[in-house]
Amino acid sequence: MTTNKKVNLAIALLLAICLWVYVLLIDNPSTRQVMRNVPVNFLNEETLEEDGLVVIDKELESVSVSYSGQRSETDKVKAGDFKVTADLEGLKAGESTVRLFVSGPQSIKVDGTSPQKVKVVIDELVDEERPIYVRLVNQTSDDSEPHIVQVSEDAVMVRGARTFVNQVSYVRAEVDAAKVGNNLKALNIKLVPVNESGETVENVDLEFDSISVTTILHNKKTVSLTVPVTGNDDIYITREITVPKIITIKGTDENLEAVTSITCEPVDVSNIFESTTIPVVPVLPEGIEVAMNSEHLQVKVTAVDAGTRAFAFTENDVVLEGVTEGMMPIISDTEIQVKVAGNRDVVEAAVETDFSFSADISGLKPGEHVIPLTCVCANNLLSVEYNPKEITIVIEVKEDDTAGAEDSQQQEGQEQQPDQNEEKPGQDLGEGES
After folding, report:
1. Whether 66 contacts 115, CB under 8 Å
2. Contact 110/180 with Cβ under 8 angstroms?
3. What are the pLDDT digits (tens) for 113-134?
4. What is the DSSP letter of 106?
5. Cβ(53)–Cβ(12) below 8 Å
């Protein structure tokens, strides 16, 4: 009985194998399949660079490929058997749509890709110089601070797409204070391109990746600070001014010993009509520098009863002086912005008729000229700023005057020509008489 079961099992297995072979080798149906994540090869990117262009964005990096054929063949296909290409040769700056081409094994039929096209964005390839700013990091000591003695380079060329290069405000080099000692030491510092916010800008290349920064450790000292303030004598404006009283400096012990106080350059507040802060500029003795914690000292100005206001005018409000007779001056379209400041009550009372604009064109010949624009305010208690300071004027000769001048010249010429029938002096009217 057991022998019969084994025989039956063997027969069933043989039948299954025969059926499988029949399906594959005899029936072998045609099938259609999809291969996903097939990478796209972008051709001729190097030719774009030769033309001063570079790809900055690709809509996609891979696609799906549809293919069909006998199951026995389609089951063997792998993603690497397909080649999908996008030819970038001849493209211009801007966004372009490029058709995809695909090839695969000869044993199957390639039906196409999804999607069939890809968008790419191309930008101008530029080289522009950016400044290198060295800054100290990891400064923890209260008594000493690194001093930058020398920097091998103060600027570097940045290369890349204009879109990305324009984002680079400067190139940063960070000196680790922990690596600076009491003796001169040259450190190799990596350069990082950053934007205005100090964030790293990707996709750009630097002419060189690092610079040499020579450093030495200096001691620090805190001394008194004098900040002269001028221009706060306006009886119509009250300004509350707060100035820093101390400053921390650094240098050698010998240089520091001779310094007991620092004076800043005078700070003029006469044109301050809004609450603001003004950076101070310390006048430092030779061999002395400002320590990091005092690099951004400022004067705080609070304008208590001041105000500002803006007015707008056009070229029609400009009076031209010195116009030559027979000439026609034309002022180009101009928008004049005026900002006034002063006591809040005086500012609020200002009106457009308080302002007059003029430009002197005396002696100018026909043609286009750029001349100074003058603004006068009738209220001398106001501080006035205006822009632009120059205007463009085109001077033409009046057509009527030109025609009149030509007619006058023709008439004078006719008067000067003698009449052929007019008697000439000495002419014998009785010619032929005895």
Report:
1. no
2. no
3. 999 999 999 999 999 999 999 9
4. T
5. no
Do 77 and 150 have their domain in common? no
Tokens of 133: 């700013």
**pTM of the prediction?**
0.60
Looking at 73, 92, 115, which one is the last position of a domain? 115
Report the alpha-carbon distance of residue 352 to residue 311 in Å, rounded.
Answer: 7
Work out the number of other CB atoms within 10 angstroms of the CB of residue 375.
Answer: 18
Structure token digits, residue 376 = 């006068």
CATH label of the domain that carries residue 193: 2.170.120.40
List, for residues 203-243, the tens digit of each pLDDT value.
999 999 999 999 999 999 999 999 999 999 887 888 999 99
User: Residue 389's domain is classified under what CATH number?
Assistant: 2.170.120.30
Contact 175, 146 (CB under 8 A): yes
Neighbours of 24 (CB within 10 A): 14
Question: What is the CA angle 161-162-166, rounded to 5?
Answer: 125
CA atoms within 13 A on the CB side of 22: 6
φ and ψ at residue 412, rounded to 5 degrees = -65, -35
SS percent in the chain: helix, strand, coil, step 5: 20, 50, 30
